[in-house]
Amino acid sequence: MTASSTRRTTTRTRIAAGGAIAVAGTLLLTGCGDHTDKTGSGTDTSNASAPLAGKLPADIRKAGVIKVGSDIAYSPVEFMQSGKPAGIDPDIAAALGKQLGVTFEFQNNKFDNLIVGQQAKRYQVIMSAMNDTKDRQNGVDSSNGKKVGKGVDFVDYFTAGTSILVQKGNPKGIKSLDDLCGKVVALQKGTTSEGIAREQIKKCKKDGKKPIELQTFGTDPEALLRLKQGASAADLNDFPVAAYNAKTSGGGKDFEVVGDQIEAGPYGIAVAKDDTQLRDALQAALDAIIKNGDYTKILQKWNVTAGAVTEAKINGGS
User: Fold this and answer.
1) Distance of alpha carbon 297 from alpha carbon 218, whole angstroms
2) pLDDT by 10-residue block (mean), the chain, 318 residues
3) DSSP, residue by residue, 179-190
4) Burial code of 261-277, b = ≥16 C-beta within 10 A, e = fewer?
5) CA–CA separation, 36 and 72 (whole Å)
6) Omega of the bond prior to 240 within 30 degrees of 0, cis?
């Protein structure tokens, strides 16, 4: 299910991904905690047959591995399947790996800890449905405008907005963000959903309405469970994730998506500011798989071609 994109005039804060996956199949993932769980992509690559291997930094080329930080509980973008990472991001990573002659090794962590983990050099890149924003580029905490780090560069590879997910049949009659005033909304902290909800709280008050009662959780599956139980009126998450849950959870009987996408923007592969050679190698590899058709095949596989990009841009977010 896809929806048209609607841009709001509010300022985006924390954008993109926390962790959504069909409720029935993902409650086992909610216990991953703050520790890092190393899980390989399951894809073998070879420098000898990789056309862009020479663009990588020598140490990465020698190691044959790019370590990836990711919150692997956000179907269909990334999730665990038969003990291995699966989804849009792991598939794109595998295609990039063929171009670069390396294996992308995914390491599981909570979304709001990913940039901290990268700064600690636990992994070289982040692929986790993370939207490219100026605040992230500049190392600014969007919630308070304060400088908190060096920031990161992004290689943009997909476009998505936020969607409103409600119980099947839409018993609360929700059609837009304005309909959430005075209602309970459950969502994952540290994502665009939280930023959008907090801006909407201000709007509700300005309009003389009761504010949203916001409940935040470490993972989106926790928020989805609240919605499934009827303890919240809605969950906000990225459109491919919302659509996937609407289609799969409870055999399609648990949820549905309402309204248009909100604040569509690019997902980016996050790279440290001083890793310009790695950043540029990833850009070249992404352009290569867009050109050779591998990128389109991956998006078709996951039914998300509406989010396709036509070229790999660096820091194209706003």
Assistant:
1) 32
2) 35 34 34 48 57 97 97 93 97 98 96 93 96 92 85 96 96 96 94 90 97 93 95 94 92 95 93 98 98 97 92 95
3) GGTTSEEEEETT
4) bbbbbbbbbbbbeebee
5) 11
6) no
Q: What is the value of pTM for the model shown?
A: 0.77
Element (H, E) at 91: helix 88-100
CB 314 within 8 A of CB 129: no
Residue 78 gets which letter from DSSP?
B
CA 153, CA 302: separation in Å to the nearest integer?
26
Given this model, what pLDDT does residue 190 score? 83
Using CB atoms within 10 A of its CB, is residue 212 exposed (0-12), middle (13-18) or buried (19+)? Answer: buried
36 vs 89, 112, 203, 236, 265, CA distance in Å? 18, 13, 38, 26, 28
Q: How far is 196 from 12, CA to CA, in rounded Å? A: 7
- Residue 262 identity: I
Q: Measured between alpha carbons, how far is 193 from 162 in angstroms, rounded to an integer?
A: 7
Distance CA 218, CA 188 (A): 6
Dist. CA 264–CA 266, nearest whole Å: 7
Distance CA 48, CA 140 (A): 41
Q: Which of 268, 289, 271, 267 is nearest to 280 (CA)?
A: 271
DSSP state of 210: P
CA separation, residue 244 to residues 40, 75, 138, 176, 239 (Å): 24, 7, 32, 20, 8
pLDDT score of 285: 98
